[in-house]
Design a protein that fits this description.
The chain has one domain: 2,3-Dihydroxybiphenyl 1,2-Dioxygenase, domain 1. The chain is built from three helices and eight strands, in the order βαβββαβαβββ. The chain has an eight-stranded mixed beta sheet. The protein is globular. The model has no long low-confidence stretch (mean pLDDT 96). The chain binds zinc ion. Zinc ion (ZN) binds next to strand 1 and strand 5.
């Protein structure tokens, strides 16, 4: 069941160059992780019960690089936390919504993730995420 907003993904050219803005807001980068399968470097910034996720491309082939090319830096996706991603994936699929992957895959922090295509998400790229213990 989807029960919360887990994080908000923001595309940036450089985590290092973006750091000053978040520090000026009194926030702090908790950790930086590379996700080679997505060709992306991820910085998590806790903000109350939600986190901001800065996404920096690791190569020109990265989906984030393509997003930056097309739209520039800014809002990239909203991630909803769930405790049963397979059920959510199946229900959305059954009702005709387009998911980006055939099945959930391993993303940042080792969580199982799936994405709802923006065409199916009312213009929003939604990520579903189920933490793995
Ligand atoms: Zn995300």
């Amino acid at each position: 069941m989807i029960s919360k907003v887990d994080h908000i993904g923001i595309a940036v050219h450089s985590i290092e160059e973006s750091r000053a803005l978040y520090e000026a807001m009194g926030l702090e980068i908790a950790e930086i992780e590379e996700v080679p399968q997505e060709q992306v470097r991820v910085a998590m910034i806790p903000c109350g019960s939600v986190r901001l996720e800065l996404l920096e491309p690791m190569s020109p082939e990265s989906p984030i690089a393509k997003h930056l090319e097309k739209r520039g830096p800014g809002l990239h996706h909203v991630c909803l936390g769930t405790d049963d991603i397979s059920a959510d994936d199946g229900r959305l699929r059954e009702r005709g919504y387009q998911l980006l992957r055939d099945q959930p895959t391993i993303g940042a922090e080792g969580a199982l993730v799936q994405f709802l295509h923006p065409k199916s998400g009312g213009g929003v790229l939604y990520e579903l995420s189920q933490p793995q213990d």
